[in-house]
Write a structure and sequence with these properties.
InterPro entries: DUF167, YggU-like_sf
Order of helices and strands: EEEHEE
CATH topology: Conserved Hypothetical Protein Mth637, Chain: A
CATH superfamily: YggU-like
Shape: globular
Pfam family, one: DUF167
Strand order of the largest sheet: 2-3-1-5-4
Radius of gyration: 11 Å
Number of strands: 5
Family: Belongs to the UPF0235 family.
Helix content: 10-25%
Largest sheet: 5 strands, mixed
Length: 73
């Protein structure tokens, strides 16, 4: 399964919502040194109740809009 995610780094609160089929994820981590991406993977793993290794960023590694692949376990 591939989902589209819009990331909001450096937010005051952590949250996940869905709008028009796009997941909007607010993260506390800053976009430097891959901190926000690692936090995103951790948060999505908890949200979908899967392991972190089942999640990979396939497009948009340095962008706010990302395509995330979630593999079946």
């Amino acid at each position: 399964m591939v989902i589209e995610v819009k990331v909001k780094p450096s937010s005051k609160e952590i949250s996940i919502s869905q709008k028009n089929g796009i997941y909007v994820v607010s993260l506390k981590g800053k976009p430097h040194d891959n901190v926000a991406n690692l936090e995103l993977i951790d948060l999505l793993a908890k949200y979908f109740n899967i392991s972190k290794t089942a999640i990979s960023i396939v497009h948009g590694l340095k962008s706010k809009r990302k395509l995330i692949e979630i593999k079946e376990e």
